[in-house]
Design brief:
Arc Repressor Mutant, subunit A, 362 residues
Length: 362
Amino acid sequence: MENTAYNGFSLKVVRDFYGISQSQFAKLLGISQPVISKLEKGDKNLEENHIKNFSEYFEANFFKRNVENVNPKLFYRKLSSVTKSKLGMFESRLNLFYNTILEALEIVDLDSDQLPKIDIDDYYRDVDGEYKTDFEYIATEVRLKFGMGRGPIPNIIKLLEEKGVIIHFFDYDFISSDNNKFDGVSFYVKGIPVILVNNKIPNSRKVFTIAHELGHLLLHFDDMIAIERDIESEANNFASAFLAPAKDIKSSLRQLNIEKLKSLKIEWNMSISSLVYRAYTLGTISQQTLRFWMMKLSPIRKNEPLEFEIDSPKLLKKLFQVLEQQTDHGIYKHLGFTEKMRAELFGKDNIPFKPKLKIVLD
């Protein structure tokens, strides 16, 4: 039986999508702020006249759907320095993306739980005379489980998509390339790992961000994480060891100069800044030398030389191709998304050009 009731929480998602307060929202709708609060909490019924102003992005049936809140499931640092409105705009889009994948998995089967789950406590040991988490060992184990050899990773996107990770480069107007608060985010949808990365950041930073988010997916899958753990530092340490194993790169990170760093950037598909920091963590340069390099690189850090090409993600596009075929082009209408919303969330490049019935990665 078709649901004819409007869902109040969907109104909050819409308000956050536009980045406005309850008071601003109330003025837009011509009602009082307390009424908005009651509508969002479900204490008052949402009516058709409340939703007519949002047809640019949302069709009426969107407000009848049960929108699941993804926010507690997200892996990304709490953004205390970001305005509430901008944070709401970002998280509302994540909610909509999450619910789209959730709906898609009701129609299309993808292999779930392909990534290993790692209990970091199992890797706390004596490392060079100091008891700490052995991220080198963790990264080596993950590489072995992925069937990888030694040395640089030529295509991290292809590698992870073959392991069932959905990767998407988002491009939101309210997030600039300078805002590193929104480099990336990751979460699971019914066992399917998802990584979203800011398309405006340089490709070398995208590669590290993907490896960083992989660290979250592997290490922080459990909701019960001790409060004293620094999960951002853990994800960074994993990403560095995964991209550039100590046994393979340490000898190259001695006696650094800018030309050597440029060469290593091309070889390892890593930014110059991350290579310098990797040298510091491996003990081939001192903290004083690290500070020297950070100051020297500061003018070019956001626009490094020798940026390289990377592949565009393919799995999400192929998933949408299957959905279009299976649903007679009705999946987005069912979700209540207009074409403009579809382009906002997934990008025009993900609009299927030829429906297929099977997901096969090149």
